[in-house]
């Protein structure tokens, strides 16, 4: 069997980590020798740890080259191995704050803090990660996990939504853990119908592989706990595809208010304009901001919930919606994305889009 890469890496460090050339280094006080290094990294290592030949080597390199990224990464790796994980995390975080890079060190720092279950500190480091790399989907996912651990589920939802939007165009490659955590955050808030939506969206990206008994059970459990509206009778709506982009527009009701919407399977969320949100009494003033990927680039919106969305005979309750400024054309009030469409089966063939009750033949 092949040895894990971390074992190989540590072996290489051990081989390369011969003691410094001067024979009397063991007689020196590490607190004196490395006072500046400790101050920059925000750590205070026990003398016995600092005297380890490999640790001493990298501390000495950082004494001579304060912003040596290789040295700080190697030092963190060794500190993790010898059980000083917090010092590794703090050192990586403060190194980036002093030296300005690399963002990968912040990623590792948050990972370590999450394993230590120090969620408030993990949020702090993730905040710095996002400040330096606002479009990094990993940064938002990590902060979402930290916020969830800290019990701030609403902010966690916004970060999970951002992680999905910022991932890129091939959303089939997004890990299921993002959607599962988003669902769990909704459930922790008692929003069980909304909790089913991320799972259904993940399934919709690749139904042939993901529509399994396991995912169906997860969804059914959430829907049962939320007493979600789900018709057991077969219903379908059929719309002609128009134009080069196969655009579909249709009339729909949100909270009983009629509007005209673009049906967009490429959008993660249903979205409505602030004007329509006011008419439909969709509250959003205190909602968290999320990022949305549009044809015009990344924009911000407010993540809220519509009590009921009806598209002809198809109805869904507690549908996540985003309130945002829209430029979809005159008379268009918003779009119906996957937070609504994933509750149904969507099929396109013969120049038509057909939306039908889920699970019906």
Q: What percent of residues adopt helix (DSSP H or I)?
A: 40-55%
User: What is the tally of beta strands?
Assistant: 10
Biggest sheet overview: 6 strands, mixed, barrel
What is the highest CATH level, the class of the domain at 5-133? Mainly Alpha
Report what the structure shows.
The chain is of the alpha+beta class. Among the domains are: 5-133, Serine Threonine Protein Phosphatase 5, Tetratricopeptide repeat; 236-357, Cathepsin D, subunit A, domain 1, CATH 2.40.70. Helix content is 49%, strand content 19%. The chain has 17 helices and ten strands. The chain has helices at residues 5-16, 30-33, 35-41, 47-50, 53-64, 69-81, 85-99, 103-115, 119-132, 137-149, 153-166, 176-188, 192-205, 207-210, 213-226, 274-279, 338-341, and strands at 236-240, 249-254, 257-263, 270-272, 289-294, 297-311, 314-323, 334-336, 344-349, 352-357. The strands form two sheets. Strands 2-3-8-4-7-6 form a six-stranded mixed beta barrel. The protein has a three-stranded antiparallel beta sheet with strand order 1-10-9, with no helix packed on it. A hairpin with a 2-residue loop joins β2 (249-254) and β3 (257-263). α5 (53-64) runs antiparallel to α6 (69-81), α8 (103-115) runs antiparallel to α9 and α10 packs antiparallel against α11 (153-166). The chain is elongated, with a radius of gyration of 26 Å. The protein starts with a helix and ends with a strand. 37% of the residues are buried.
